[in-house]
Each structure stands twice: as C-alpha cells, then as structure tokens.
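To assess whether the prediction recovers the assembly geometry, we first specified each molecular entity separately, as shown.
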Amino acid sequence: MSSQYQTISSLPHHVGETVRVRGWVAHLRSSGKVAFIVMRDGSGILQCVVVQKIVGDTGWETFSALTLETSVEIEGEVRADARAPGGVEVGVTNMIVIGTSPVDYPIQPKEHGIDFLLDHRHLWLRSSRQVAIARVRAEIEQALNDFFYERKFVRVDTPILTSAIGERSGLFSTEYFDEGNAYLAQTGQLYGEAAAAALGNIYTFGPTFRAEKSKTRRHLTEFWMLEPEMAFVDSAGNMQLQEEMIEYVVKRCIERCSAELAVLERDMPKLEAIRAPFPRIDYTDAVTTLQGKGSAVQWGDDLGAEDESLLVADYATPIFVVNYPKEAKAFYMKENPADPRTVLCSDMLAPEGYGEIIGGSQREDDLDRMTQRIKDEGLSVEAYDWYLDLRRYGTFVHSGFGLGLERTVTWICGIPHIREAIAFPRTMYRLRP
RNA sequence: UCCCCAGUAGCUCAGUUGGUUAGAGCAUUCGACUGUUAAUCGAAGGGUCGUAGGUUCAAGUCCUACCUGGGGAGCCA
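The predicted structure of the complete assembly is given in tokenized form:
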C-alpha cells in the first residue's frame, strides 16, 4: 500500500500537514463560491472544503461536475474545525476525478423502502450504517476466533457438500456425479464430533444452509455458524464455555467498536450489563412460568418466539433454557439421567427479545441408545455408520453447540432484522445481488 | 404451507362517499448565494396508477384472478 495517501480515520493525527486522500463522494453542498464535499473511504467520513479562489477556475469546474459516488483523489491541508463532522476537515488545493458516476445513483440520503434497498444491496453496503454493521460483524468473528485460539481449540473446516446427514429440516440438493444427490450442509457438528475425538477441543466456522421457507426477521437460508465440540465435557461445562464466550465477544465490541455502535445508536448500558454467569432455567420450570404469564404452551412443546420473549423479559443478560423434552430436540442429544423424558441440552436466548442465538447439547455417547434413536427418527442406520463408529471405537462424553453468527450480530448491533447482518443475505425470495 | 399487509414520478408517500387535465417532498436540469451540516431560495422537466379481466355514464379509487414484495406462524442458529 502506498504511504503517500492517508485514510480518513488517520487524519486527526495529521493536522497541519498536506495530505492526499482517495475515496467516494458521499454528499455535496455548494454555497456560491465555497463548497463542501463529504467524502468516504471506508475508514470514515471527511468534509472537504473547496473554495473557488483557491482551486481556480479549472478546479472549480472539476468540482461542479462532481456527482454522488464519484471516486476522487483530493489533496489539501488538514485543519481542525469544530464545524466539521469528526472535528477535522481538509482545505482542498487539488482534486482528481478517478471514476465518474452518473447522476442516477439510486441510493439517496433519505429513507428508502426495504424492497428497494435489498434490490440495491451491492450499493446499499456503502452507507454508513451498513459499513458500521459490517465492521461489528468482522470484530465479532475475530473475537470468536481469538477466544478459541487462546483456549487452544483447533479450528477444523468441515464439508459443505455432504450426503444426507444432520437434522430434519430442509436440505438444498444438487446432483453429484454418480453418487446421486449431494446436500448443502446444515451443520458441521457430526464432522466436528469426529474431529473432537482426534484433537480434543475443536470448532468449525463456516456457512450453513437451510432450505426452510422461513419468512421472519430471524431467518436466512444461508448463514454462518460457529460450532465448538469438546471431548470429555458435559452439558454444564458446555454452558460455562458459552457464557464466557459471549461475555468475551460483547466486551470486545464495546472496546473496539464504540464508533460503529454509536452510528447504530446502540443502547450501550444494555451491552455493558452482559456478564457471566447467565441464569439456567429448566425447561419444565419455564413452561410453568410461561403458563403463569398467560402462554398456551404445554409441556412437550418447543418454545415459540413469543414464549422466548416472555421468558427473557425478566433478565438483563442472556439466559439458558435447559433440558427440553426429547421429542422437541434432535436425535443426537443425550438422555437426561435425572429425567429420561428430557435431554441434556441448552438454548441460549439473547436479551431484548432477540431470541435463540445458541443451541447446544451433550451428545449421546452410548452406541446402542444412539442406534435406537436413529431408528426411532426413521433415519437410515447405514447413512450414519461412520457417525456410530465414534461410539464404537472409544466412546467419550462430549458436548458442543452452534452459535448463529448473524443472530449474534443482529443482537449486538441492536438492529431490527437479520438480513442487515450479512453482506448479501439469502432469503426465500432473494438470490441476487 | 398457512394468516395479514402493500404495489401511484428515479425514491418516499398523499390522492375524500367513484366525478374536470394525477399531487407533494426528495432527487435531476437551469439560475442565485463565500461556512454548509439530509444547506437554503426561485424555475423547469418527469406518470401504461403492478398485470389481466369485470362492474359503471365515469375506476388510481369498487369486484375477481394473477404477479411481485413485505410482516408474522411453523422450523430452527
């Protein structure tokens, strides 16, 4: 990278110096013979002041021809000025157009409908709010990787193309040579379990796919999931790691993303309140509580979105709901020895009504019981032969969970809809851009 | 798959019990202005009212179907 250019974010350290900056025109204001270019370069927003008698007639013509989103290079002196957003501005002495932009740039500094914005997602990404979300997302991903690296977890990348295996929900399928259909992975967990028997503590982090016709603010058909798997760790240890992880990630965002969270107008005290440990609520108790609050939920039902909100309303931190009925959960979860109607699992529900961000469990480690559960679910034992090998050859207590990245981003950013939490959201009706 | 809602200018919307030539703001073009903060002021251009039928003397407005989205449910991260 050439050092003769400065990023906008670095300019407060260059007051009094002449600098060159490259970026895009975000806004234009003219007032006779003095004009303002608001420029963005991804690192920040800069007010550039153009005065006709300084830039001369040629420079003024260059300015007059500028349009929104033209890419430009400007040169000038950095000066502190209270009237400039961010406190510094550049007095332009020279200006070069890099790439012009027609006057019909679709996204204006005003409100747009969501349909229009999603159709122009490739351009919408340039707006300050979307830039802020993208930066918070990247920080969350980095924090997660750091958290597991510090704890000596090994990152294992699992296949996206799989044979039919995993959970019951919808699969995307595609032809796969002479092997019949391949399916896009909806979890890396089963592969993660195999890797845990090799490496001890591992995690996977990658895209995952659900062909469900979900139309809600919490669902995408393609989303990123982080799935740790830990050998010789039970359900209690599983939850302890989860709450440490969430506390770590939230703290990192508060430390390093305060500017982005300010753009998003995030209620910071609500994030600052996120401290482990988080409450554990037994599913059976949760049902009683919910019925007391007027919910129609019956023991045995999974908790609906409204039930989750009701439950979380009493807490400032995320909560765990533990030990759901067997019928409501996946076949690989270990039966609860204290209550065989239930399994050793935990869902983490985020505060402020953001809902489930983590689903985790201790895995069934008994070969016979696992085989029976696969049969009970109407699944093919042959398809799971390699998975059963993990119980056949040196079975081990192990636990893990799946963290939904976009749901976590949505919650930490305090934004209303999951589709803003990923650069190019894939939903039922959106495959482009 | 089910329930609800919406489609009028490039964008965001208004449009009365059906009634003259379809309205505004923003954006665009032209003009004014030496410190603007989504600048302001003046002027101009810009429409197959989602599509197809139907009712009516008359439909942006009422009816039917379809299309395209949005919100929610279920499922889950």
